[in-house]
Write a structure and sequence with these properties.
This protein is α/β, with parallel strands linked by helices. It is built from eight helices and eleven strands. The strands form three sheets. A seven-stranded parallel β-sheet has the order 3-2-1-4-5-6-9, sandwiched between helices. The structure holds NADPH dihydro-nicotinamide-adenine-dinucleotide phosphate and 2-hydroxyethylsulfonic acid.
Length: 257
């Protein structure tokens, strides 16, 4: 696929998967439009994308706010009335508390970003996705959406909801030519665990102790591959895990050497 002249919109592009995905699409010549709350970090990512000569724009985006989503999409429309790929990536986990001691603010943040945010951005962006073969709407889910774990009730719940939303969109958009898919990663080394544990980097590091996790580039390359299939091919769902992670509770850890 020739990516020159095509535009890709990525939410949550200030770090992790979103930043790596921006660089991957920019690397093949696509224009990228990036959104997230941390503008300084978006500017850094945009600088790396532009270094290859690719058209790159960024704009503040809080997917938890309908007004912020509307302003972001207005900006996207002013850059290009047509967007070829939308990647709903913004989200993450807050806390690892059992339901018995869970906090409202954590639950609300997870529901707002992973679930309602995805729906808001999709609703606002759909008019910009061309209704003919070749456009892609790709959502980031998680293995947490396939299997629940202790302390993950709300996070697992919103990622299970992401699967349902993706499946509903696949049905609703059937006949438009827009491809719809979900990429559901397992353990990946990003800022995910730092956010989950509120900046407790020592606790975050324990998650990856003795394991070779996925890295953001693995997810970025897979998203680029999904969006680059011929227009008649829809990748509905991919589960991508580290070789060391056979299941959520079955992780091979090497002893410290
Ligand atoms: P990071 O914490 O590195 O990135 C999360 C991104 O989401 C940041 O760019 C952050 O930007 C953005 N974000 C969070 N909340 C909002 C919001 N309200 N509005 C706009 N942007 C927001 O983690 P990952 O890259 O790992 O996470 C990306 C996605 O992948 C998430 O949906 C996560 O649940 C999912 N995932 C992660 C896995 C992992 O092990 N790392 C595995 C499976 C799925 P900012 O703070 O600047 O707004
Ligand atoms: C992130 C993967 O297993 O920590 O979605 O929930 S997990």
């Amino acid at each position: 696929m020739d990516w020159k002249g095509r535009w890709v919109v990525i939410t949550g592009a200030s770090s992790g998967f979103g930043a790596a995905t921006a660089e991957a699409f920019a690397g093949v010549g696509a224009g990228v439009i990036l959104g997230a709350r941390r503008l300084d970090r978006l500017a850094e990512v945009a600088g790396r994308c532009r270094a290859g000569g690719t058209p790159t724009e960024f704009h503040p985006l809080d997917v938890a706010s309908t007004a912020s989503v509307a302003a972001f999409v207005d900006r996207v429309r002013s850059i290009s009335p047509r967007v070829d790929v939308l990647i709903n990536n913004a989200g993450g986990a807050h806390g690892l508390d059992p339901v018995a001691t869970g906090r409202d603010e954590d639950w609300e943040a997870m529901v707002q970003s992973n679930l309602l945010g995805l729906a808001r951005v999709t609703r606002a962006m759909l008019p910009l996705l061309p209704h003919h073969a070749g456009a892609s709407l790709l959502n980031i889910g998680s293995i947490a959406g396939h299997q629940a774990y202790e302390g993950g009730a709300i996070y697992c719940g919103v990622k299970a909801a992401e699967r349902s939303i993706t499946q509903a969109l696949r049905l609703e958009l059937n006949g438009t030519g827009i491809r719809v898919g979900s990429l559901d990663p397992g353990m990946a080394l990003t800022e995910f665990s730092d956010v989950r544990f509120r900046g407790d980097t020592a606790r975050a590091a324990q998650v990856y102790r003795g394991v070779e996790p996925l890295v953001a580039r693995d997810i970025a390359e897979t998203l680029l591959w999904m969006a680059s299939r011929p227009p008649h091919v829809n990748i509905d769902e991919i589960v991508l895990k580290p070789t060391d992670q056979a299941a959520i509770h079955k992780v091979h850890r090497r002893a410290a050497g």
